[in-house]
């Protein structure tokens, strides 16, 4: 009986550990996990991809009302600075359109 209980606990802990690992993409350092919470609830990793040097992980809150996309792009410093500037401009435009209530 004790062996069965031990086996069940080991199995449950193993399943829990594999679920925790699945929630963290390999390119994201562990200290980011603390930032992936909204209102005390952890965001869930919904998709991840690695295409053409761009690693992307998308996290969402329950109900889909909150979402975060994190990308890691392999590039040289000047190219990365230009990509960051381009993305900032695009996101500012998206936020402006959403505030104004107009589609992009």
Topology as a string of helices (H) and strands (E): HEEEEEH
Mean pLDDT: 76
Strand content: 25-35%
Rounded to the nearest angstrom, the radius of gyration is 19 Å
Gross morphology: flat
Into how many domains do the coordinates divide? 2
Unreliable spans: 1-22
Q: Can you summarize the main beta sheet?
A: 3 strands, antiparallel
Kindly report how far apart the N and C termini lie. 63 Å
- How many helix segments? 2
Name the structural class: alpha+beta
Helicity range of the residues? Answer: 40-55%
- Biggest sheet strand order reads 3-4-5
Number of strands: 5
Describe this structure in words.
With 104 residues, this protein is of the alpha+beta class. The chain folds into 2 domains: 2-71, no CATH class; 74-104. The protein is built from 2 helices and 5 strands, in the order H-E-E-E-E-E-H. The protein has helices spanning 2-22, 77-100; strands spanning 37-38, 41-42, 44-51, 54-60, 67-73. The strands form 2 sheets. A 3-stranded antiparallel sheet has the order 3-4-5, with no helix packed on it. Strands 1-2 form a two-stranded antiparallel ribbon. The longest helix has 24 residues, at 77-100. The chain is flat, with a radius of gyration of 19 Å. The termini are far apart. The relative contact order is 0.09. Mean pLDDT is 76; it is low at 1-22.
Salient structural properties:
2 domains, disordered N terminus, two-stranded antiparallel sheet, 104 residues, 25% strand, alpha+beta, 2 helices, 3-stranded antiparallel β-sheet, 43% helix
């Amino acid at each position: 009986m004790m062996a069965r209980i031990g086996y069940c606990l080991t199995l449950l802990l193993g399943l829990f550990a594999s679920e925790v690992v699945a929630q963290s993409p390999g390119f994201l350092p562990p200290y980011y996990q603390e930032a992936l919470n909204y209102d005390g609830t952890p965001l869930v990793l919904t998709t991840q991809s690695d295409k053409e040097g761009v690693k992307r992980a998308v996290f969402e809150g329950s109900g889909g009302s909150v979402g975060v996309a994190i990308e890691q792009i392999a590039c040289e410093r000047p190219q990365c600075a230009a990509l960051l500037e381009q993305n900032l401009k695009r996101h500012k435009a998206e936020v402006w359109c959403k505030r104004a209530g107009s589609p992009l």
